[in-house]
Amino acid sequence: LKLTDEVMTVKYSPDARYVAVGLMDSTVKVFFEDSLKFFLSLYGHRLPVLSIDISSDSTLLVSASADKTIKVWGLDFGDCHKSFLAHDDSVSQVRFVPDTHYLFSAGKDRVVKYWDADRFEHIITLHGHHAEVWALAVSHSGAFVVSGANDRSLRVWERTDEQVFLEEERERRMEAMYDDAAQVEAKSIGDMDGSGIDGSAKGSTDVTQQGGKSSVVGLKAGERLMQALDLAHNELERWSKYRRLLLARAALSDGRAGRGKRMTGLERAIEEYKQVMNIGDSSDDEQDDSDSDSDSSSDDNGSKKHQKKNKTKKKKNKKSVSITRPPPNPLLQGMSASDYVFKALTTMRSAQIEEALLVLPFEYVVRLLRFVLDFVENGRRIELCVRVASFLVKIHQKQIVSNQMLVNTLARLRTATRAQLQRRKDLIGYNMAALRFVRSSVKSNSNAYFFGDNNSSSSNNDNPRVKRARQ
Predict the structure, then answer these.
(1) What letters, b where the CB count within 10 A reaches 16 and e where it falls short, cover 167-178?
(2) Which DSSP category does 326 fall into?
């Protein structure tokens, strides 16, 4: 079979019906396998076709070209279903995932991308190579893909159970695009001003660009942390109100209300309990009873019976009202308020923590420090808690000193932190002493050294040549 131009790539269809050939003239020719007769000619690329692949059901053909595009073709009529501007440089490889219409592409822009050829969507971008990616292979099960690049490396990308949300991936790509554009603009402005000549000015522009690049990511992390703090605060308020009502009901039943100034907090809870339960004061009830008695003298017997019925209904309504236990909040995903905030704090990347803490208002700083105190007292991620607490105190030092809201919290936090650090210090010292003891016992009981010390000296002593030289 002779062709009109140089052949760049060849693919055999899985159903053994077609042979597809990518040519230097930017076209893809499809021939029948048995007779090698011409079947389809696929036009559309502007530069040579570098790679082609056919899906497992032999219904779709994908082609990659040096014009940075990927085209999805139908093998029934040869129509172009979709054309993607896939990479920032030439697309070197495309491969379908077996038994699906998902595909991977690789290019000279050092990245591997994952696509959906049915919905024509870009799913995810895989970064890792430091040079042009020239080779790509997908496993038969689709569990992993291997890429080879000009940086002399092979990378294995494994499929995980983590869900990928297309909207979030889209937002990340848009943010990256805007950040790159901002960096280019800032660099051009710096070159025009001549600030790039001075080292100090260049360092300041680098810091500014770095802060602008990470501001969006840090802002989103701070918003997620504030949302978690709001949910936790509302949950604690619900349970605090429930406990106050229980305390007030117990106080009313025991007759402990109104015993002096010490019961002011309890009396407030009792007032709140009466408002929730729609209960009036006893004096008001007595006044109502006296009024009803005075009015009843002028009324007939029928009105008295009617008033008695109304009173019994009111009493029944009062008795029917009860304090209900707060239902669980589904937004907390079955966790307590403290656990939910701890999860939100620990799932953030280490580089985003300080940026997220910078956007917190002081009200949320107070809430977070109280949660951090709870984490430290329970011995949970002491290093992270100390880092968060020290950063917040450093940033909001003036507000903390001025309003004195967090004095008790910070004092307890200091005490708990010192106790936890001392406990860990003792544990490390105990383990080090145990290791030293094991090492000394091994040395004394055998000729072998525990950590491989003095191996060279022992080998030299056993060497006959060394013995002769000494003699």
Answers:
(1) eebeeeeeeeee
(2) P
